[in-house]
């Protein structure tokens, strides 16, 4: 008799398989299976070789999404090819300072960031592998151009890479003319080296060098004594300046002492002032004493008259004794007195 299958066991097995499949999908998706994302498109002007599907999209070094697909489109009207790169960006990649997601803030929404200058460019992940990634940053100074060929998707303007800028500059160079100029310079240099002018110039340079050496030796011989003399003169000047400084110090000290002595409140000036006052007083007294109507002058006149009479009497006595020496013994004769009268 054939055994019948247990429906409960079969259902449990199927449910477990589905749970395992979901867990595997969640693990493979990095826990982002139910994350809220935004899709955007970018148009790069150069080659995108090395940009694989799944390449990281970073904002200032922080991964915020990945490359979803890279396509090539043809525009029949202009017969131009374009390479749109579709990316998937995580809305919750940017967080506030408190750690909460900033995806609900209009200022940080993808269209607002594009208006604020969000630009994309290709950068090198590794020089060894040559793989590229998409680098996002705010570059409001760069020009913005949009193609608008994908309604419903936010288009992020792109910037040229450093390699693309260098390639554009190299493409703008006229290599042929540059090579011709280098060849002409090389030919001119070769002609100068092979010509006689270079040898003559070298000989002239050698002669000039010899002359300069001779002049230098002569200057060295002559400058030695001059330097010694100048050094001696400087020494004498220094000594004279020191003596002059000492003399100036002495004059300054004397001036200070004289200034101290001649100060209005100094003892010397006070003594001189007192002496001058005394001299003035003495001169005034002498002036009063020598006046014509003063008693001193009158007494002096009388004294002079008395002295004059006394002198005359002495002179008469001397004359009498000279004529009559005996008068010392006898006295003067009356007739002599009368005759004198």
From TrEMBL:
TM region positions: none
Coiled-coil boundaries: none
InterPro entries the UniProt entry points to: Mce/MlaD, MlaD_Phospholipid_Transporter
Pfam families registered for this protein in UniProt: MlaD
Mce/MlaD domain ranges (all copies): 46-137
Protein name per UniProt: Mce/MlaD domain-containing protein
The organism of origin for this protein: Rubrivivax gelatinosus (strain NBRC 100245 / IL144)
Phylogenetic placement of the source organism: Bacteria, Pseudomonadati, Pseudomonadota, Betaproteobacteria, Burkholderiales
